[in-house]
Amino acid sequence: MKAVILVGGKGTRLRPLTNNLTKAMVPVLNRPFLEHALRYLKKHGVDEVILAMGYLPDPIQEYFGDGSRLGIKLIYMVEETPLGTAGAVKNAEQLLDDTFVVLNGDILTNIDLTAMIKRHFEVRPRASIALTRVDNPTLYGVVETDSSEMVKRFIEKPAPDKVTSHMINAGIYILEPDVLKNVPPATPFMFERQVFPTLLENGQPVLSYPSDAYWIDIGTPEKYLKVHFDLLLAWDSSLRKIRIEGRSKIDPGAVIEGPVLIAGDCVVEEQAQLKGPVVLGAGCYLAKEAVVEGAVLWPNSRVGRGALLTNSILGANSVIEDGVSIPESCVLGDNIVVDTECRLKKGGRLPAE
Ligand code: GTP
Known about the structure:
Distance between the termini: 47 Å
Radius of gyration: 22 Å
Largest sheet: 8 strands, parallel
Bound molecules: guanosine-5'-triphosphate
CATH topology of the largest domain: Spore Coat Polysaccharide Biosynthesis Protein SpsA, Chain A
CATH class of the largest domain: Alpha Beta
Oligomer: single chain
Strand content: 25-35%
Helix content: 10-25%
Number of helices: 6
């Protein structure tokens, strides 16, 4: 089966993490986020993926190539200007001659896509939409359904007193190719606000696939950190809680409490403390007595002697100088330096700013 992954968004809410990378290439457990999405699709029988790209497409193509490393055929479609979710899929219409999957490129989920596809073929609607439950649906596209799970109504970002359902569009669709006939070519167009409501207005059947499986979008730095915590804390208790990929130098006098994932070429000095969940990207350096707790560090970053980093994200090639305590929940971008006076020399964002 074929799938389209939408990876064209700018990821503005993920800044400063997306200052130099597209959302799809942001590392999750030291792999580009898109790799997790591709593995998910492959697990559910997808063998060909069209990547609908816009912002910063080249690094994606350079990293994934023809997809053979992951056992999936990859085709790249680049938009000159953003075409929106449906416009981007319309752009690939000539490649889509049979029932296909569309996946938002910023979600991580365990939704059973195989079962969703099976249900689609049993009911044969024009479109199936996966739904997930959220506590606060006011920030999302809410989907109302009837007792047989057919979609009745879409409500974009309802006001708190207008919430009628906690089930939201999860960003996974199964579509019949003729749905794209309702999308104008080379024009910004959205599934959520235009294509699906129009199908309902025209009396076309739209099926929902509600699921309580794990689902999260990495739309904000807070959720980016939460994805890591969720994945690391879900590590099977029978397996090692400290995983070191490649060659790293961990001093026997360092104190490490899992779950911790350490990429290759890292150095952790004596009496440095790593308290999981923590991910160190390749080439990170933790000086003596540095404390890193609940944090994600991108490649080649340094935490100085006695410095403290808690519940925060540190971008690539960044430095926290000796003795600095970074306030909780900081999102520090690439190439920044926090000096010994706890001043941000360049880049990044401290919570008080
Ligand atoms: P923000 O800038 O933070 O709102 O994020 P976004 O635009 O990256 O994401 P949004 O949540 O609006 O979009 C959901 C998914 O659709 C993401 O995976 C985006 O990459 C993707 N997407 C959004 N707009 C486009 C587009 O115009 N073209 C393509 N190809 N993908 C898009």
